[in-house]
Amino acid sequence: MSLFRATAAAATCCVLATGCSPSFVGSAQPAGGATNAVIVRVIDGDTADVRQDDRGRLRIRILGINAPETHRKGWSVGCFGPESTTWAASFLPVGQRVSITGDPTQDATDRYGRTLAYIGMPDGRDFSMESVRAGMSKVVTYGKRPVERFDDLAAAEAAAKDQHTGLWGAPCWGNTDSVPV
């Protein structure tokens, strides 16, 4: 086989494999908005596993927030990490029906393969907003692209700081950094 034919065959295989790869099937958030899911497990203050009828089990990295670390291998537990995780587990109990919504300003998944999404409650409350209001997480910008709800989250964070709520009070005073161990 000539070099040209071998290269063309390899390129064709790559295109077909990439275009048909299961990792791309159903991985992007629906363009139409929210989809329904059920909470399967809370990992920590900003990550939860859900189950959707059409996509199965997904690990959701909740958009707009960053909670103190509790499970990062080789790193210390961040100040207020356990409290944030406990709060998240009580707010998102196993079996709770929720809505999952992507953000047009963000990627559908992160570098770890987690789905990036907001989690909405049946009563209309947004998990990210409630977590920031309660001082269980900080507002975060991914790269240089703030989430669509950034301004509202930042206002809630400012109020939590002013009131020394959650991680903004003693003993953390906002310092929730983890360090290598």
Automatic annotation (TrEMBL):
<keyword id="KW-0540">Nuclease</keyword>
<feature type="signal peptide">
    <location>
        <begin position="1"/>
        <end position="17"/>
    </location>
</feature>
<dbReference type="InterPro" id="IPR016071">
    <property type="entry name" value="Staphylococal_nuclease_OB-fold"/>
</dbReference>
<feature type="domain" description="TNase-like">
    <location>
        <begin position="33"/>
        <end position="170"/>
    </location>
</feature>
<protein>
    <recommendedName>
        <fullName>TNase-like domain-containing protein</fullName>
    </recommendedName>
</protein>
<dbReference type="GO" id="GO:0004519">
    <property type="term" value="F:endonuclease activity"/>
</dbReference>
<keyword id="KW-0378">Hydrolase</keyword>
<dbReference type="GO" id="GO:0016787">
    <property type="term" value="F:hydrolase activity"/>
</dbReference>
<dbReference type="Pfam" id="PF00565">
    <property type="entry name" value="SNase"/>
</dbReference>
<dbReference type="InterPro" id="IPR035437">
    <property type="entry name" value="SNase_OB-fold_sf"/>
</dbReference>
<keyword id="KW-0732">Signal</keyword>
<keyword id="KW-0255">Endonuclease</keyword>
